[in-house]
Hints:
Elements: E1 21-24, E2 29-32, E3 35-36, H1 37-43, H2 46-55, H3 61-73, H4 81-86, H5 94-105, H6 118-144, H7 157-166, H8 177-189, H9 197-206, H10 212-223, H11 231-242, H12 247-258, H13 279-294, H14 301-314, H15 317-321, H16 329-339, H17 346-368
Antiparallel strand pairs: 1-2, 2-3
Helix pairs in contact: 2-17, 3-6, 5-6, 5-10, 6-7, 6-17, 7-8, 8-13, 8-16, 8-17, 9-10, 9-17, 10-17, 11-16, 12-14, 13-16
Bound molecules: carboxymethyl coenzyme *A.
Amino acid sequence: EGFFTYDPGFVATAACESGITYIDGGEGVLLHRGYPIAQLANNSNFVELSYLLLFGELPSKEEYVNFEKTIRNHTMVHEQLANFFKGFRRDAHPMAILCGVVGGLAAFYHDNLDITKEEERRVSAIRLIAKMPTLAAMCHKYNIGQPFNYPRNDLNYAENFLYMMFGNPCEEYKINPVFAKAMDRIFMLHADHEQNASTSTVRLAGSTGANPFACISAGIAALWGPAHGGANEAVLNMLDEIGDDSEENIQRFVDRAKDKDDPFRLMGFGHRVYRNFDPRAKVMKETCDQVLGELGMADDPQLKIAKRLEQIALEDDYFIERQLYPNVDFYSGIILKAIGVPANMFTVVFAVSRTIGWISHWNEMISTGYRIGRPRQLYTGHTQRDYPEKN
Ligand code: CMC
């Protein structure tokens, strides 16, 4: 008693064992169940990757077909859930709505919340993966005052999300295959990243025996901050603020990021674990070039600013010494914007994707044995003292 390892920010503490994701930050390696992220991004799709993360192996053809079909069968949300949205102001941040409605899902599935039963855990996982795009799109539709779209199960996961986001009852919505592919890739690149802040939050909440919907809503809350999932929205706001790609203008912002008296940081730069490069950022940059190229937007002003900013920062001693590189979210916002996703939805898209990572970790923890997470502290308050006498 009384002897603890003091590790604020958990920079040197492993809190669990896990077989899902491997990261070598020095070498820029990211493997899901052993498979490199770039190979998955180029050859797999989000639903297949979800199966891999959740169950540990790539599915056979038949397993894939069944899994995908099961997800499609669960895309609708209970009609009563639409009423939750109406309680929010129209201009509510979609992340605020998402935290609420996902936690609220538990109220609809009381009969399947026995977390000791594998089958019930599996159906909760399927429900979450299937319903997240529906709920996310509902947040957007509510914001802009358009009717909610029911999911269309003739579409695949990414297409369905685009349809629910952008379709409206007045005209036929044509899926742009470039957008759908890019969306699927964004989902894949954000799917899991071992014990990051939100995943650790999900595990900690789950270690109390809380139901999976409550745990995922805790994860969404942790993801929201600008140091984590909120970075993609913050990157675009930063590029807006920078405004033009002239050398001296960009240099001014780089200098501000280096100034310790200025709270400004280069958003989309730096990572706790990656000290060489973020392998997701590499694929994301390629996707960005591809999407904007195919859309004839290769000279998009924000893309130009981002590329120049990256160049200038990577040559600067401050960033070199601290091993700060662009992370996954440096380019994701530019792609999302090109697809038509508004900036306040970027972190919501991240949450849709990370749900599979969160639920896979939760399921792994519940099925392999765990203790309640209970960090200790170094007490810095008063020593014992007597309550003053009243006169
Ligand atoms: N701009 C300027 N300086 C930075 C930045 C940045 N983006 N990131 C780190 N630094 C500096 C920091 O000031 C510190 O300098 P010094 O040693 O002189 O005090 C040094 O680099 C180490 O930084 P740290 O804050 O101790 O590093 P951390 O591991 O605690 O934080 C981070 C990691 C990702 C929160 C941080 O790099 C950051 O705030 N980046 C910007 C936000 C961002 O892009 N987040 C998304 C991360 S990837 C997706 C996700 O996880 O959701």
